[in-house]
Amino acid sequence: MKPIAIFRHAATEGPGYFTDFLHERAIPWQLIRIDAGDAVPQDANVYSGLVFMGGPMSVNDDLPWIPPVLALIRQAVARDIPVLGHCLGGQLISKALGGVVTRNPVKEIGWGTVTVSGNDTARAWFGNIQSFEAFHWHGETFGLPQGAAHLLFSAYCANQGYALGKHLALQCHVEMNEQMIRDWCEVGASEIAASTGSPAVQSAATMQAQMADKLPQLHAAARQLYQRWVAGLANQSSFRE
């Protein structure tokens, strides 16, 4: 089976629980470290799927790697190669497919409830899950590309997820683990301090105190989504359920 390409845009924003999920199913993957200067691949056919993680930058920034990433996403979608995006990754997918990424009404940092939309596509992706506590760290939000189905919303962000066929984009983070949350709280301490006026921003202490209770539910939602997403991979019969 061809590997899944996982794009990391910041050193502390790796794939987290997603690679635990892949290891359990013996699905091969390759990390492309954009933050370390790795080149953006030009041929999506080398991979069974493309996964884009988060990052502190904006998809609207003038960064040299953004145009080739957008081109690669468009190529993958045109060739029916599944694409998955987390936060910045979801915004990259949206921009590549004609959506607009703009400032969210408020910044969301920390734990917050997301609700599954009441349509057939959302039910197909989430099964019996109607809502769950997701992890958030964003100041911008994506618009839905043409033809996409709305999947998720929160009290502070209308578009928390969408699907377009076998492609999935999330504004929230379902890939988190304890170490990632601790690292983000340390690296993002000044951002938290500057954002205390937002009703959707928690303190680092609160985020970390809630990890033990909320991470199992988050991982359950992630497994549900990831299982449906990997079902679209080429040659997926070679991995364990």
How many domains is the backbone divided into?
1
Number of helices: 8
CATH class (first level) name: Alpha Beta
Q: Tell me the quaternary state.
A: single chain
Q: Kindly name the structural category.
A: alpha/beta
Strand order of the largest sheet: 2-1-3-4-9-8-7-5-6
Poorly predicted sequence stretches spanning 5 or more consecutive residues = 236-241
Distance between the termini: 15 Å
CATH homologous superfamily?
Class I glutamine amidotransferase (GATase) domain
Percent in helix: 25-40%
Say what the CATH topology is: Rossmann fold
Main sheet specs = 9 strands, mixed
Inertia-based shape: globular
H/E series: EHEEHEHEHEEEEHHHH
Strand content: 15-25%
Report the count of strand segments. 9
Q: Mind telling me the C-alpha Rg?
A: 17 Å
The pLDDT mean sits at: 96
Q: Give the CATH architecture.
A: 3-Layer(aba) Sandwich
What does this structure look like?
It is a single chain. The chain is α/β, with parallel strands linked by helices and 241 residues long. Helices cover 33% and strands 25% of the residues. It has eight helices and nine strands. The chain has helices at 17-24, 66-78, 88-96, 120-126, 178-187, 189-194, 204-209, 211-230; strands at residues 4-8, 29-33, 49-52, 83-86, 101-116, 131-142, 149-154, 161-164, 167-170. Mean pLDDT is 96; it is low at 236-241.
